[in-house]
Amino acid sequence: MLRFVEETGSTNADMLALAERGAPEGTWLRAGRQTGGRGRMGRLWESPEGNLFCSTLVRTGPNDPPAHTLALVTANAVHALVAPLCAGQARIKWPNDVLVDGAKIAGILLERTGDAVVVGIGVNVTGHPTGLDRPVTSLAAQGASDADAASLLERLATLFAHWVGIWRAQGLEPVRAHWLLNAHPSGTPMRVSMPDGEAVDGTFDTLDRQGMLILRLANGQSHAIHAGDIILT
User: What stretch of H or E contains 120?
Assistant: First the structure.
């Protein structure tokens, strides 16, 4: 089920409320504009009209892989959506961003209520913010000037359902393997800003079997990252 509203504060907030009222898995909500969109670490997600702002939910069960690994599922789906439309190379950045030639084009935010994981997705379609401390881009800037949010959502819903089906039926490993094929390659230098404010420098090694990032430190030791903000250096 695909729902549309002209304007809302946050599609994730709305979907969390729908989930608490029993909305089924497969429900999608798209907004023409958000006035209170948010990203990870409490950041504001700018929401100009024409871009894709949407949320869906997954009802988790006892035999499903860990709920947090839906971030990898979603990244695979979003990458598959935008990569064919971009002139540059699209890559996934752990845990929840899609970049094109190093510039952010899409972001993902997971939130939970009860057995429902709400997945918020934002894709820069017709434009992107300027003056930020990191590079950003849009599908229009990548040459896909005819892309529109409504059509993209229909394709995204199909791709997301495909990857949720694999995640649920086959487990995390095929999701993880596909993610690694389309992510920053092993050896990529990065800095991780931890939730407590500490910064850790190293190079990307791999994802472990639970979807955690394994950082290779300068002394050769491995460091598992459970949560943090990645800056490619």
Answer: strand 116-123
Are the C-beta atoms of 136 and 124 separated by less than 8 Å?
Answer: yes
Helices 172-181 and 70-82: crossing angle in degrees, nearest 10, is: 40
- 147 burial via Cβ count (<10 Å: 0-12, 13-18, 19+): buried
Taking the CA of residue 226 as centre, how many other CA atoms within 13 Å lie in the half-sphere pointing to its CB? 2
Query: Token match 């993902």: residue?
Result: 108
Strand partners, 4: 30
Task: Count CB-CB contacts under 10 A for residue 85.
Answer: 18
Summarised one tens digit per residue, pLDDT across range 88-100 is 999 999 988 999 9
Q: How far apart are CA 163 and CA 39, in angstroms?
A: 22
Residue pair 58/72 in contact (Cβ under 8 Å)? The answer is no
Q: Which residues pair with 231 in a beta bridge?
A: 191
**pTM (predicted TM-score):** 0.93
The three-class DSSP label of residue 14 is: helix
32-90, pLDDT tens digit by residue? 998 865 554 445 555 678 999 999 999 999 999 999 999 999 999 999 999 999 999 99
Specify the pLDDT at position 224: 92
Distance CA 204, CA 184 (A): 8
For residue 125, give the amino acid letter: V
